[in-house]
Design goal:
With about 140 residues, the protein is of the alpha+beta class. The protein contains three helices and seven strands. The strands form two sheets. Strands 1, 2, 3, 4 and 5 form a five-stranded antiparallel beta sheet that branches. The longest helix is centred in the middle third of the chain and has 14 residues, at about 65-80. It has helices spanning about 15-25, 65-80, 125-135, and strands at about 5-10, 30-35, 40, 50-60, 95-100, 105, 115.
Amino acid sequence: MKHRYYLALGSNLGDRSDHLQQARTQLGQFGDIIKASSIIETKPFGAADQLFLNQVLVYQTDLEPVALLDAIKQIETELGRTFAARWGNREIDIDIILWDGEKIDTVTPHGYRLIIPHPGLPQRQFFIKLLDEIK
């Protein structure tokens, strides 16, 4: 069964545009990007000190949410992300912000907490702006 997700991509280290492109390419291994928002530059949230490039995707895949999160963590690691500091600087960040209109709050077998809709959605106006652009 195909699931529709809204994913947020962000990068604030190195070649930010290239990191977003590589993430989109890697996501293609597991599903299809149906639509992509524009890319905007945003101020950091939390501890990061560099401006982010952000984009939101409509993404379709057979993967269930936990399996998609595992695939995302694999992609982030392959693209150089380290998980040293929450809200810190990062080469790539991929968040699941919405899923088929459903809700989930669970801890994955790898110990990641998965909450959909993304709990930061109300505080990150750029998520809402980019979502509105592609809905």
